[in-house]
Amino acid sequence: MKVFITGIAGFLGSNLADWCLKKNYQVSGCDNLVGGEKENFKDLDVEFFNIDCENLEEMTKAMKGVDVLCHAASYAHEGLSSVSPTLICRNNMMGSVSTFTAAIKNNVKRIVFCSSMARYGAIPIPYKEEDVPNPVDPYGVTKLAAENILKILSKTYGFEYNIAVPHNIIGPKQKYDDPFRNVASIMVNLMLQKRKPIIYGDGKQKRCFSDIDDCISCLDKLMFDDNIINEIVNIGPDEEFITINQLFEIISNKLKFNETAIYKKERPNEIYEAMCSSDKARKLLNYKTNVSLSESMDKMINHIKSRGTKEFEYNYPIEINSSITPETWTKKLF
Fold first, then answer.
1. Whether the Cβ atoms of residue 197 and residue 179 lie closer than 8 Å to each other
2. What is the mean pLDDT of residues 241-251?
3. CA-CA distance, 158 to 208, in Å (whole number)?
């Protein structure tokens, strides 16, 4: 079986490629290397295409002979989407539509789309798959729109699909020099440099963090189980619901970092408490949280130590510089 993974040089894509190779699937994939790194898959036997998902012609060529597509590529910058909406919407919306179209043209049997918890937005927690979403930022809107287009195309052309809804994934190979996303890896990178992390708002925002291995075991079933078709499933834990302040304390204790954090104005449109129910994943995918938050943080810390700390790269433009644009980005404070 031939598997194609978009964003194969990224955190989720490269770990998924490794998983699929261990199951003896033939793996190929693409990445524009804006948020991904070749180092993430340098030891993997994959066919790599350095192309952008928005390029329909090249995506169509790359996907020849593919059986299963996992669309993991994304500018996964929920916070940035409120100040750079054109960038995020173009990539996540048109990139997804182009990817789906290329798959249809190549008669791909199944498409698995990696959506986001941002699809739910301002509704009561825990978020359940049957809830009516109410996204509050452009990023969440693009993810939900891509889901709806995928459903329409599936009904029109007859391919199978599944939609995964991962949330706050952490672990080895996560990008830790991106100032716009990945709060845990940002904190680790800064603290290893003896620099104080920055926390937005009062730090009492609450989240659950998902270990990469627990998420990929769920993606496996969504990609390859013949009995799981046309489903939307939250993948990740609903345990260890913690504040950002508590996350800072956990990392500080592990790194023996004795400084306080720096607090800045809250980011626009940030949901205060966000958590997904894992009930459907437990029933449908036999999901179980096998890796605790503490264990997952150890894996991430060891990975960053092995690669070495990095300076932060401001690779994305700020389209709207106003009074609500975080100064951490405009003044490049990381």
1. no
2. 98
3. 35
For the chain, the structural domain boundaries read: 2-169+210-235, 173-207+239-274+291-330
Residues 6 or more apart whose Cβ sits within 8 Å of residue 173: 11, 14, 15, 40, 212, 303
Size of the chain, expressed as the number of residues it contains: 334
CATH superfamily of 173-207+239-274+291-330: UDP-galactose 4-epimerase, domain 1 (3.90.25.10)
CATH of domain 2-169+210-235: 3.40.50.720
Strand (E) positions, the chain? Answer: 2-6, 26-30, 47-49, 68-71, 110-114, 160-166, 169-170, 198-200, 206-207, 210-211, 231-235, 242-243, 262-264
Q: What is the pLDDT of residues 107-153, one digit of tens each?
A: 999 999 999 999 999 999 999 999 999 999 999 999 999 999 999 99
Instruction: Count CB atoms within 10 A of the CB of residue 243.
Output: 16
Among residues of the chain, what percentage have pLDDT more than 90? Answer: 99
Phi, psi of 5 (to 5 degrees): -120, 120
